[in-house]
């Protein structure tokens, strides 16, 4: 007989637990970018920043920690300049390729 599990007993999934190295981060962001959803990409950048350490990313990007949290909310209208600063602080570079 199969044991039933209550949903309330399940732990909440946190992607940051799986973003342990640069390869995992790059693959995660690439998958999210394929969806063509800017809000999800901003959310993914926030996930990566949390995995790497929000305080360290804030310092490296020149943003306050609070500003970084605000900028990486999926509902924010983050400027491209901020995205580039955050990517640079995380050791990432956005590139293009043909579709």
Please describe what this structure looks like.
By secondary structure, this protein is an all-alpha fold. It has a domain at 21-89: 434 Repressor (Amino-terminal Domain), CATH 1.10.260. Helices cover 54% and strands 0% of the residues. The chain is built from five helices and no strands. The protein has helices spanning 22-34, 38-52, 54-61, 65-71, 80-89. It is globular and about 55 Å long. This is Addiction module antidote protein. GO terms for molecular function: DNA binding. Pfam families: dnstrm_HI1420. InterPro entries: HI1420, Lambda_DNA-bd_dom_sf.
CATH-defined architecture of the domain at 21-89: Orthogonal Bundle
Order of helices and strands: HHHHH
Instruction: Describe the sheet with the most strands.
Output: none
Which structural class fits the helix and strand makeup?
A: mainly alpha
In the CATH scheme, the class of the domain at 21-89 would be Mainly Alpha
Shape call: globular
Give the mean pLDDT: 93
**Total count of helical runs of at least 4 residues:** 5
Number of strands: 0
CATH fold title of the domain at 21-89 = 434 Repressor (Amino-terminal Domain)
Distance between the termini: 49 Å
Helix coverage percent of residues?
40-55%
Radius of gyration: 16 Å
- What are the segments in which pLDDT stays under 50 over at least 5 consecutive residues? none
Give a concise summary.
The chain has 5 helices and no strands.
Topology:
Layout: H1 22-34, H2 38-52, H3 54-61, H4 65-71, H5 80-89
Helix pairs in contact: 1-2, 3-4, 3-5
């Amino acid at each position: 007989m199969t044991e039933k599990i209550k949903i309330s007993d399940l732990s909440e999934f946190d992607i940051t637990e799986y973003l342990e190295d640069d390869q995992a981060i790059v693959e995660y962001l690439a998958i999210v970018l394929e969806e063509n959803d800017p809000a999800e990409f901003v959310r993914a950048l926030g996930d990566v920043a949390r995995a790497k350490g929000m305080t360290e990313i804030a310092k490296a990007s020149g943003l306050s920690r609070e500003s970084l949290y605000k900028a990486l909310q999926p509902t924010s209208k983050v400027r491209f300049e901020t995205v580039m600063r955050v990517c640079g602080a995380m050791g990432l570079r956005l590139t293009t390729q043909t579709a």
